[in-house]
């Protein structure tokens, strides 16, 4: 995979930004773009929930505590975030998957999860 401005989403159309506030993405460019250096594969754009944040923290990935040195202010329920594909799948299996914004989820996520799984958790609000 390579970082490309013309990346595709899981719907096969142009990948649209996930969030600029908080600024998300492996490259902190607002999109779930990726390349070979993105070992976590931050491909799935989600709208985080309190339940997911609690689950993630209990699983060893604290997404709430700010880390200014990494330009990370900490997440709160309702924020949109580019989540690691494997973490989203783990949360889904445990019953805590946050809603997915398909238009902002990188097509590479389909290497880890199915379109049916993503659609079953599709966010029903406005995209941006």
Mean pLDDT: 92
Give the CATH superfamily.
Protein of unknown function DUF2237
Q: What is the domain tally?
A: 1
- Helix and strand element order: EHEHH
Q: Structural class of the secondary elements?
A: alpha+beta
**Hey, roughly how much beta strand do the residues contain?**
5-15%
Q: Widest sheet: strand order?
A: 1-2
User: So, CATH architecture?
Assistant: 2-Layer Sandwich
Number of strands: 2
Our Rg estimate from Cα atoms comes to 13 Å
Terminal Cα span? 25 Å
CATH class: Alpha Beta
Low-confidence stretches: none
Number of helices: 3
| Shape descriptor | globular
What this model shows, in words?
The chain has 128 residues and is an alpha+beta fold. It has a single domain, classed as Phenylalanyl-tRNA Synthetase, Chain B, domain 1. It is built from 3 helices and 2 strands. It has helices at 50-58, 85-94, 115-120; strands at residues 42-47, 80-84. The protein has a two-stranded antiparallel sheet. The chain is globular. 36% of the residues are buried. The model has no long low-confidence stretch (mean pLDDT 92).
């Amino acid at each position: 995979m390579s970082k490309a401005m013309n990346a595709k989403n899981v719907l096969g159309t142009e990948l649209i930004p996930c969030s600029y506030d908080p600024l998300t993405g492996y490259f902190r460019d607002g999109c779930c773009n990726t390349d070979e250096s993105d070992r976590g594969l931050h491909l799935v754009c989600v709208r985080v929930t309190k339940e997911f944040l609690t689950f993630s923290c209990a699983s060893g990935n604290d997404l709430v505590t700010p880390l200014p040195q990494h330009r990370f202010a900490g997440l709160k329920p309702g924020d949109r975030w580019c989540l690691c594909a494997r973490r989203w799948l783990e949360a889904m299996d445990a019953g805590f998957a946050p809603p997915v914004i398909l238009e902002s989820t990188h097509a590479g996520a389909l290497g880890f999860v199915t379109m049916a799984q993503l659609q079953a958790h599709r966010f029903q609000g406005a995209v941006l």
